[in-house]
Amino acid sequence: MAKKLVIKVTSGADAPERCSQAFTVAAVAVASGVEVSLWLTGESAWFALPDRAAEFELPHAAPLPDLIAAIQAAGTITLCTQCAARRDITEKDVLDGVRIAGAQVFVSEVMAEDVQALVY
């Protein structure tokens, strides 16, 4: 069984079910004791900003701010460097605890031993 789960979220409000699934799986994994690294890319990059997750709505889904808080409690949230740059998001703009990192960090995480990677 993998000791770490790396999840890359590529969707946001443009594909709410897929987006919500990624955050839900990450939060459940953290609650289950799995080490989680959640990567925000593409349209999900906006959820690295304060209050943006509160705007996200999906019937019968856990609120995104609650899922983010659960993930941050014991996991890592990373915003893609290029995705941040394309949206003029800087380190001073993001939620506390969110890091900005690039492809080389992502590749090193997914290539590590005992890692399972998912893309949503």
From TrEMBL:
It comes from Streptomyces albipurpureus. This is DsrE family protein. InterPro entries: DsrEFH-like (IPR027396), Sulphur_relay_DsrE/F-like (IPR003787). The lineage of its organism: Bacteria, Bacillati, Actinomycetota, Actinomycetes, Kitasatosporales. Pfam families: DsrE (PF02635).
